[in-house]
Amino acid sequence: MPKSLNKFDRAAQYKAKWSKCAEDNLLGRTIVGIRYLTDKETEAMDWGRSAIVLVLDDGTLIFPSMDDEGSGAGAIFGRSKDDKEFILPVI
């Protein structure tokens, strides 16, 4: 990314790049299963705790990390259609 861009332009470019990645991998997919990472999967990630997994119709697995580097399992926060907050915690 060119250094001549201001921080807002750089942020917009990053958002566009990663939005495209999300669209390419997620748009049109259907969640067909929900579970937590198995002990084997958690160990393979070198994590001490397990995160929720969304299983998509094409076999893609989505699970949260505590940061961009995959340092550990992460929680998911949400808001339901009736405006109630919920959390899917790390276990």
Folded structure, characterized:
The protein is an alpha+beta fold. It has one domain. Helix content is 29%, strand content 23%. Strands 1-2-3 form a 3-stranded antiparallel β-sheet, with no helix packed on it. A two-stranded antiparallel sheet has the order 4-5. The longest helix has 20 residues.
Low-confidence stretches: none
Number of helical stretches of at least 4 residues: 2
Report the span from N to C terminus: 38 Å
What integer is the average pLDDT? 94
The major beta sheet can be summarized as: 3 strands, antiparallel
Rounded to the nearest angstrom, the radius of gyration is 16 Å
Work out the strand percent: 15-25%
Number of strands: 5
| Basic shape | globular
Biggest sheet: strands side by side, in what order? Answer: 1-2-3
Given helix and strand content, the structural type is: alpha+beta
Order of helices and strands: HEHEEEE
Could you estimate the helical fraction of the residues in percent? 25-40%
Counted up, domains total 1
Task: Give me the secondary-structure topology.
Blueprint lengths: L6 H20 L4 E6 L2 H6 L7 E5 L4 E2 L13 E4 L5 E4 L3
Quick take:
The protein is an alpha+beta fold.
Which structural traits does this protein have?
91 residues; alpha+beta; three-stranded antiparallel beta sheet; two-stranded antiparallel ribbon; 2 helices; globular
